Amino acid sequence: MSLKGKTAVVTGGGSGIGRAVAQRLARDEAAIAIWDLNGAGATETAKLISDAGGKAIAIHTDAADAAAIKAAADKTRAAFGPITIIVNNAGMTGFTPFLEIKPEAWDRMIAVNLRGPYLCSREVVPDMLAAAWGRIINITSSSIQTGAANMAHYVSSKGGLMGLTKALAMEFADKGITANMVPPGFIDTPMLRASPVNVDAFAASMPMKRAGKPEDIAGACAFLASEEAGYVTGQTISVNGGRYLGSA
Question: Active-site residue numbers?
Fold first, then answer.
């Protein structure tokens, strides 16, 4: 699935799922811009890609800040040209009982997990329109399919991102631009390991008896970014090891 000649942005590409996605799209010959608040992590990802023979740059940016996003996009275009693939992966999580969620914590979660993808997509869609080709891939969460206790702010933010995905799919379907989402289900990442979840015990309760790997999500993103997925839009590819079997 060659992406040669395409420029892709992966937000939150400094570790975990974002890093795996960036590396996979680079293997498929896209030029990669890693946008991350974790500048050191982004630099490490870019080096891993470059050392493997790919093209990548790291840009320290806040994916929830409009001015920072514009500056990152300008740097990306200067290095690689128009941006026609974006993977909105940057996000935050939280575990707090509903009645203890402070308004400021709610607002920050929405800013990072929903406003950020809106701002990033708004910045790059004009490039896609000019090219009559584009791929918007949003990383949501299996929690929007099952619900999750003590995560109302997180689930709400990711549920909003699901709605944004479908709205963009409908609005740009006849412009050569697709918008799809991948809701990961229990993927072994640094973010998961830092959570209060007992990763190994929960993994044992899963149908596959193991946690997923970031590379599992990367594979789905690679397909959605490819020419082969040109007639796929507004869809959900649930990569969750059987955790959720519904169609939503």
Answer: 154
* Sign of the four-CA dihedral 54, 60, 15, 146: negative
What are the beta bridge partners of residue 118?
none
Structural domain count, the chain = 1
- Rounded Cα distance between 4 and 57, Å, is 16
197-211 confidence digits (pLDDT tens)? 667 777 777 788 888
81: CATH: 3.40.50.720
Q: Is residue 70 part of a domain?
A: yes
d(CA 223, CA 157): 25
Whether residue 246 lies inside any domain: the answer is no
Using the Cα atoms of residue 29, residue 167, residue 220 and residue 69 in order, give the sign of their dihedral. positive
Host domain of residue 157 = 7-184+217-229
0.85 cut: is pTM over it? yes
Other C-beta atoms lying within 10 Å of the C-beta of residue 80:
20
Tokens encoding 133 = 């080709």
Please determine, for residue 139, whether its predicted confidence score (pLDDT) is greater than 90: yes
